[in-house]
């Protein structure tokens, strides 16, 4: 089992019993998510924004316009942090204090650089697209050069990371366990609904297999 080394930067302090530094488990969280919360500083202000991402090995790919202030700020700093969280259940206890949620979260720390080579940019965008829905990249038209030129692609190399995972039931005070109050879990999951074809599609174009496969896996 390969683990990220623990340091002041990535060590989980609160709830250490839920901490996890296993590379494979952190990658599994990243692969199950698609939106990460990216933190950066802009003109002295701390800002956090949700961003879709793609992952390949120890690389995270983000993209936006060439004028995107978040990506430009990250490139200026040369480093970044991103958190991905998956919500698995509401934990309803007998007292307000012990209500909680079950979740899987991963926080990444690493260095960033801009991708300028067209081939590298396309490979990063393919990674991003197939992270959204596997097989999608090969079904769409190739990018025009002017689209590629207008797109800023940033590559993060994960240097260290940590995860926090809560996957247990209610943790009430012993004296509260006999109270006539319902307690338990409400499991949650994100599901895909039936694909809706664009109204401008030619009538003979059917929903492609990769979309149907994604729907069947997540319905």
Automatic annotation (TrEMBL):
One Pfam family of this chain: Pyridox_ox_2
Protein's name according to its UniProt entry: Nitroimidazol reductase NimA-like FMN-containing flavoprotein (Pyridoxamine 5'-phosphate oxidase superfamily)
SUPFAM superfamilies noted in UniProt: FMN-binding split barrel (SSF50475)
Signal peptide: none
Top-level taxonomic group: Bacteria
């Amino acid at each position: 089992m390969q683990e990220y080394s623990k340091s002041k930067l990535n060590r989980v302090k609160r709830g250490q019993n839920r901490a996890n530094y296993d590379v494979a488990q952190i990658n599994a969280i990243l692969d199950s998510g698609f939106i990460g919360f990216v933190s950066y500083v802009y003109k002295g202000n701390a800002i956090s924004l949700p961003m879709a991402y793609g992952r390949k090995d120890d690389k995270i790919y983000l993209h936006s316009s060439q004028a995107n202030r978040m990506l430009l700020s990250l490139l200026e700093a040369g480093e970044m942090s991103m958190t991905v969280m998956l919500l698995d259940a509401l934990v309803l206890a007998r007292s307000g204090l012990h209500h909680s949620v079950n979740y899987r979260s991963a926080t990444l720390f690493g260095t960033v650089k801009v991708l300028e080579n067209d081939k590298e940019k396309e490979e990063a965008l393919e990674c991003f697209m197939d992270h959204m829905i596997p097989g999608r990249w090969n079904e769409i038209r190739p990018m025009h050069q002017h689209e590629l030129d207008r797109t800023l692609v940033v590559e993060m190399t994960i240097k260290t990371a940590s995860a926090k995972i809560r996957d247990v039931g209610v943790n009430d005070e012993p004296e509260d366990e006999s109270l006539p109050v319902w307690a338990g879990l409400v499991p949650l999951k994100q599901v895909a609904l039936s694909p809706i074809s664009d109204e401008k599609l030619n009538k003979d174009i059917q929903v492609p297999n990769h979309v149907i496969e994604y729907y069947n896996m997540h319905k």
